[in-house]
């Protein structure tokens, strides 16, 4: 069995199984935690707390004016990185083919040259963010293994994908196999590390927004 | 014909001009990407060589490899190769049959030990009784013939890697020649794999000429000459620009297919297949499968028959899709509920101050 055979076969099957089990375990485990009832009357009668929670999901996507100057660098890079990653993952022709083979749905792809360019930009922003994490006096103290490993498992598919498309560093089938394997490592790590924020960011903001709105705090 | 006759003498006796011979050598050198002047060097070396005796053994095969060689649109090249070598035993091509044919093979083995070349098409069944010739098993014939050979050239994917007979479930226990050598069932000799189902005629002749001129050519990790198998079909495909642009045919009759776009999404195995179809092409350079509108099957690669559908793109799952994920989802929910119950009990104990 070659690397590609393993990656496309049992490797993919098991990594998907671990991903699904892990994500649902985390989500269900959190959603079914016991929540302490707030017995106080809602302070602000104007907006329903659930609506305030929904609002916060979106308003927190943009930095508040007070912090904008301080966070502009990392926010900008983060936006470029997230949009770049989404474009590469969801609009690359081979990724759409891959998704179609799994779920039976497909959509139009962007030219490969656009995908390559976007992947390079995305990788560059990741490197810049890593340098910031390593050099920022506060951030480097706050960072732990999870931060660096999560960075690595996201960067690896980008690097191996670029290598596979450029046929750099080995036979194409091996590079493609390594690329798929690197994606599988990401899938396995995803539920158990900080990458889980992709699923948790909206509910956690909504929960905070709900509480703040009920208390009458500005959101 | 006298066995001591050189290639040059033999060609002259058959009225083949030096110009035609030089042209053949130049074409061969060019096909193998040898440096300028190699054609002349090949011609000089070959002309002085004695015609090597060749025994062509056919085992579990379809004769497609022989058909490829003999039905080529470039008969001068193939005619020359039959003049350059002394093909003494080939069941499909030889006039003799029965005991006379077997006697011819035995005579070569006895008279030219360590000097003859064995070319093999077809895999060898190691399970008993599946194939015999003249009452002898293919494995015994292979072992006996290879024992005194100077070198072995495997022609086609079956002898090189097992091919279709080797495909799952492999009822005959078919093995390639390299597998037999690795397992000690056949004596180890210099081995060249010229894979393909069938191989390209000019590749077969080119490899033989290179062996006669310079010895065993530089081989890749599965024993194929790098000159012909050094690059993928994809690397040299004329549709490659469409791949780079992200333009793919989605069906065999859509606009993309009519415009000649890349066949990757229709299952083309060009990116993982090492062969020279895209450069030497077939039928006197007329075309190759991708040029005819069909993706590459990857026939020159080991286990190509067992690598899933010919029409499944390389960038797709072989894991059976999302089947089994429903059970995984149920398991994930169950584990999550269990984790929540444990947490709730813990919360309750904390609140009760226990």
Description:
The complex is a heterodimer of chains A (219) and B (354). Chain A is mainly alpha-helical and 219 residues long. In chain A, 74% of the residues lie in helices and 0% in strands. Chain A is built from nine helices and no strands. The longest helix of chain A is centred in the first third of the chain and has 29 residues, at 3-31. Chain A is globular and about 65 Å long. Chain B has helices spanning 7-13, 18-31, 38-48, 64-70, 75-84, 98-111, 138-147, 157-161, 163-166, 177-182, 201-214, 226-229, 240-245, 255-258, 277-280, 325-351, and strands at residues 53-58, 86-90, 117-121, 124-125, 132-133, 136-137, 151-155, 174-175, 191-194. In chain B, a hairpin with a 2-residue loop joins strand 5 (132-133) and strand 6. Chain B is elongated, with a radius of gyration of 27 Å. The model of chain B has no long low-confidence stretch (mean pLDDT 88).
Backbone structural class of chain A: mainly alpha
CATH class of the largest domain in chain B: Alpha Beta
By DSSP (H or I, 4+ residues per run), the number of helices of chain B equals: 16
Q: Distance between termini of chain B? A: 105 Å
Count of extended strands of chain A: 0
Share of helix of chain A, binned? over 70%
The succession of helices and strands of chain B, N to C, reads HHHEHHEHEEEEHEHHEHEHHHHHH
Sheet with most strands of chain B: 5 strands, parallel
| Biggest beta sheet attributes of chain A | none
Span of the ends, CA to CA of chain A: 56 Å
Could you give the count of β-strands of chain B?
9
State the CATH architecture of the largest domain in chain B: 3-Layer(aba) Sandwich
- Trace the largest sheet of chain B across and list its strands: 2-1-3-7-9
Task: Write down the oligomeric state.
Answer: heterodimer
Mean pLDDT across every amino acid position of chain B: 88
Rg for CA atoms of chain A: 21 Å
Shape of chain B: elongated
Largest interface: A-B, 46 and 42 residues
Helix content of chain B: 40-55%
């Amino acid at each position: 069995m070659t690397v590609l055979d393993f990656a496309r076969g049992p490797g993919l099957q098991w990594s998907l199984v671990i991903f699904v089990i892990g994500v649902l375990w985390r989500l269900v485990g959190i959603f079914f935690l016991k929540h302490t009832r707030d017995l106080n009357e809602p302070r602000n009668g104007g907006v329903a707390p659930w609506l305030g929670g929904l609002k916060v999901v979106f308003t927190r996507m943009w930095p508040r004016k007070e912090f904008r100057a301080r966070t502009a660098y990392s926010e900008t890079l983060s936006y470029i990185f997230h949009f770049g990653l989404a474009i590469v993952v969801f609009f690359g022709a081979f990724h759409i083919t891959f998704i179609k083979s799994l779920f039976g749905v497909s959509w139009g792809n962007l030219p490969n040259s656009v995908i390559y360019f976007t992947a390079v930009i995305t990788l560059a922003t990741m490197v810049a963010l890593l340098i910031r994490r390593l050099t920022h006096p506060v951030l480097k103290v706050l960072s732990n293994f999870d931060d660096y490993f999560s960075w690595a498992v996201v960067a690896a598919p980008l690097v191996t994908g670029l290598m596979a498309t450029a046929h750099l560093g080995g036979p194409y089938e091996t590079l493609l196999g390594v690329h798929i394997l690197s994606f599988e490592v990401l899938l396995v790590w995803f539920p158990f590390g900080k990458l889980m924020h992709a699923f948790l960011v909206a509910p956690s903001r909504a929960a905070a927004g709900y509480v703040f709105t009920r208390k009458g705090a500005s959101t | 014909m006298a066995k001591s006759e050189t290639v040059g003498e033999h060609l002259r006796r058959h009225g083949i001009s030096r110009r035609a011979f030089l042209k053949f050598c130049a074409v061969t050198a060019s096909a193998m990407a040898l440096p300028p002047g190699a054609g002349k060097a090949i011609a000089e070396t070959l002309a002085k060589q004695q015609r090597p005796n060749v025994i062509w053994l056919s085992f579990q095969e379809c004769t497609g490899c022989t058909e490829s060689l003999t039905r080529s649109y470039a008969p001068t090249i193939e005619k020359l190769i039959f003049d350059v070598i002394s093909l003494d035993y080939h069941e499909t091509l030889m006039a003799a049959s029965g005991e006379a044919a077997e006697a011819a093979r035995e005579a070569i083995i006895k008279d030219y030990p360590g000097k003859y070349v064995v070319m093999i098409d077809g895999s060898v069944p190691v399970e008993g009784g599946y194939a015999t010739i003249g009452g002898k098993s293919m494995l015994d014939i292979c072992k006996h013939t290879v024992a005194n050979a100077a070198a072995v050239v495997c022609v086609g994917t079956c002898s090189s890697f097992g091919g279709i007979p080797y495909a799952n479930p492999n009822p005959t226990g078919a093995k390639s020649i390299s597998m037999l050598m690795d397992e000690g069932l056949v004596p180890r000799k210099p081995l060249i794999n010229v894979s393909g189902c069938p191989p390209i005629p000019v590749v077969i002749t080119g490899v033989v000429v290179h062996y006669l001129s310079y010895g065993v050519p530089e081989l890749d990790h599965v024993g194929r000459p790098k000159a012909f198998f050094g690059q993928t079909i994809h690397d040299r495909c004329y549709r490659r620009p469409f791949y780079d642009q992200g333009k793919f045919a989605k069906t065999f009759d859509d606009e993309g297919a009519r415009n000649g776009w890349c066949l990757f999404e229709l299952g083309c195995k060009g990116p993982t297949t090492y062969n020279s179809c895209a450069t030497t092409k077939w039928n006197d350079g007329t075309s190759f499968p991708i040029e005819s509108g069909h993706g590459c099957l990857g026939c020159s690669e080991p286990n190509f028959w067992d690598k899933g559908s010919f029409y499944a793109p390389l960038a797709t799952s072989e894991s059976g899709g999302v089947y089994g994920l429903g059970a995984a989802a149920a398991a994930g929910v169950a584990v999550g509920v269990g984790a929540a119950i444990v947490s709730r009990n813990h919360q309750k104990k904390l609140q009760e101050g226990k």
